[in-house]
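quick one before i forget lol
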Amino acid sequence: MSHLLFFDDTPSFGGHEVMTFEYLRGICRQGTHEITVMYYEGNAHIEEKIGAMVSDGLPVRSAGMPFCYTPARSLFPVLAASDILRIARAIRSLSPDVLIAVQGNIEISSAGVVAAKLAGTKVVSYLPLAQSMRSMGLRHGRIRDFFDRLYYNLPDRYVTISKRQKDLLVKRGIGGENVDIVHNCIDMAGLSRIGKGEARSRLGLEGTPYHFGTVGRIAVKHKGQDFLLHAIAQAREILEGVRFVFVGEGPDQGQVEALINRYRLQDVVTLLPWQADPSTVYSALDAVVIPSFFEGVPLVMLEAVYYGIPVVGSSIDGIAEFLPAAWRFAPGSVPELVDRLRFVMGNDQSDLVLETNREFRGLFFRENPHREFLHSVLRNSVRG
């Protein structure tokens, strides 16, 4: 029985973690591999997910760490040197066949990657975003990209989520034979449908005829919630009768709340915390908005299409490949966003929804996706 060690030092919980635990549950149910999860002990959502797996009788072990990823620690590894050595000792003690680094970007979990190499353990990076930090508009992007070139060369293999991301990795000099694509998917068995009236009542959303939702971690440079609020404020009069529901938590929640107060949007914007079960949210919405500036392949897009509701999204990598042009707008363009919102509100979308749902079925709505992931992780990675 091979031993798989999943490593995730992020302090947040987003779609990439949701996918990781979808695969973890499937692999544990299969019962053919020993599983350990090493994670930042301050991440309550990860701790909750592991606890739920244990309660369900799934064979998973965990090891909490008292430190987490920060950009400074990856930019200046000396700041994390003692922690990296501690992780390397723990890896040697656990003796896994392979370490799967859960990396929202190449810097996240890089401490675990370095430690695994020091411990002589093979590394598979599970990476949804291979864009440069500069292209994503992140602070000190140029300097971070310079050092990140080193991190890209460390994993033995990569598992990514789309052809576009594989192409970006190949451009970085990673051999195409060392990159597998495993498309994101959704837990169809875990999603239920609720009447719209009942769902809105549960969430306190009664009284407005049309509800757009934006679901995800509140991180404005990535997810664009501030841009969406600017657009709502500018187009308030022509979007009469609409409520926007922001679902999620994150580092920029205070900034989002301040913008709502500044623009006096309390009567048209509702903030809801992260929902462990998204069924009530999607059952309550008429459409979803994804105002992001960069994405891998957003789970919210897949979930919304599964529920049969339109998705208005930025025309960026991970969205432009999959959504019809009528639902897409240029990133950061308020006029185009408002035009798409009005189009979706004012026209029957049933044909586009059915067509998009049909296209998604074979790619994203599939049974036992953990088997594909497991095959990619184990390929050329496990002893014997």
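fyi The chain is about 40% helix and 15% strand.
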